[in-house]
Design goal:
Layout lengths: L3 E11 L2 E2 L1 H10 L4 E6 L6 E6 L10 H21 L6 H6 L2 E5 L4 H12 L12 H13 L5 E4 L5 H14 L5 E8 L3 H9 L23 E10 L6 E10 L12 H13 L7 E5 L6 H14 L6 E2 L2 H4 L6 H14 L2 E2 L21 E2 L3 E8 L4 E9 L1
Helix pairs in contact: 1-11, 2-4, 6-11, 8-9
């Protein structure tokens, strides 16, 4: 990279609460807002847990409510990220946008399709383009008219968006970039994960011997990135890597080989060794194969695995948005000088041979790794530096 890239602004809203401080306080005291969602269309109605963002909607129309909820999530996180940063009108108008999501506007389409079916049995099942719902809102409300890039690489969408934004600034094509990770509730995704038997019946337990699967969640994270000068205090991106594993159509090789490879690539791209990493934010979904592969990969890369933790027991798996949402939470934690405990862990799994931290720890200067491993075998590893 030619230029260094720093985190200039952070905004986040999750099932833990609204804004950085509320999220940090909730992480110290409990978990996010669990709700039960009812899935229809099966032989019998199915109840599954879901980590939702609390929002009092003002509209009576389901279609309008879905759109309002999506826009509200975006607005809250964007306003917080930009709130403490002075940007000229020209910079604001022209800075590129990098958006990672698995859902975009799927829920809006679901609701409008159901409404259309009431009067037209031949209604189109996909009545709108989800990304357009996001892009149009950002242009109309904020006047963002620069290039925009949509990423949809499953659970690594937001992480790959961050890599794209980092490269844009590092190569001198822009001094600023806004990166958005978004995931909103939708029945299509929830039913799909239920059908694949990947959902936990109650809560997530990453790396725990009793882990049974994941719980999905929603939220929005926003990072404003900017060019940095050598020696700037705060959080900077050192680099990262993204790779695809063709082991299977669903996931990476559970032997950890592909996961180890992308972590080594991230270290090489950042000009550092494994010994330089102070701690790791693990992907940690609580699903047996994912945790197997991640634990094996860390063991292959690190002679002694650094302290590591998962954030998903707090906020759920926010899928395509998790790269930015979890990077935003990590930025907020590091800015306050602490690492969060990995919630949901109780029973050591001898087959993994390692365990996440279960008590909050102090975090100082140094390098931190953030890992994201996606459905379909796309893997991404990023490295932060606190100085």
């Amino acid at each position: 990279m030619t230029k260094q890239v720093k985190v200039a602004g952070v905004g986040v809203i999750t099932a833990l609460g609204r804004g950085k401080q509320n999220n940090l306080q909730s992480m110290a005291s409990g978990k996010g807002l669990y709700r039960t969602q009812i899935l229809k269309g099966f032989d019998e109605p199915v109840e599954v847990p879901y980590l939702a963002v609390e929002h009092d909607l003002n509209t009576g129309s389901p279609g309008d409510a879905a759109l309002e909820h999506l826009q509200w999530l975006l607005d809250y996180a964007i306003d917080e990220a930009l709130g403490d940063v002075e940007l000229s009108d020209d910079v604001r108008k022209n800075m590129p946008l990098f958006i990672g999501s698995s859902s975009y506007g799927i829920n809006i389409g679901e609701v409008r399709y159901q409404q259309s079916l009431q009067s037209d049995p031949a209604a189109a099942p996909i009545p709108l383009d989800g990304f357009t719902q996001v892009g149009n809102h950002l242009r109309e409300k904020y006047g963002f008219l620069g290039a925009d890039y949509a990423y949809n690489t499953a659970c690594t969408s937001g992480a790959n968006a961050l890599l794209g934004a980092m490269a844009t600034i590092a190569e001198g094509r822009s001094d600023y970039a806004l990166v958005i990770g978004l995931e909103t509730f939708n029945t299509t995704t929830l039913a799909g994960f239920f059908g694949m038997q990947l959902l936990a019946p109650e809560a997530m337990r990453p790396f725990d011997k009793r882990r049974e699967g994941l719980v999905l969640g929603e939220g929005c994270g926003v990072l404003l990135l900017s060019a940095a000068r050598p020696g700037d205090a705060g959080i900077t991106f050192c680099g990262g890597a993204s790779r695809c594993d063709t082991h299977s159509i669903a996931a990476s090789n559970p032997d950890g080989s592909a996961i180890a490879l992308v972590m080594r690539d991230a270290l090489q791209q950042s000009n550092m060794s494994a010994d330089d990493i102070v701690a790791i934010k693990a992907h940690g979904t609580g699903s047996p194969l994912n945790d197997d592969g991640e634990a094996a990969g860390m063991t292959q890369v690190f002679t002694t695995v650094p302290p590591f933790f998962s954030l998903k027991s707090y906020i759920g798996h926010t899928l395509g948005g998790c790269g930015v949402i979890e990077a935003a939470l990590m930025s907020a934690c590091l800015a306050e000088g602490r690492l969060p405990a990995s919630a949901g862990f109780e029973c050591f799994d001898e087959s993994l041979g390692l365990a996440p931290i279960t008590q909050a720890q102090a975090a100082g200067k140094g390098h931190y790794m953030l890992n994201f491993f996606g459905f379909g075998g796309n893997n991404c590893s990023l490295i932060f530096r606190v100085q």
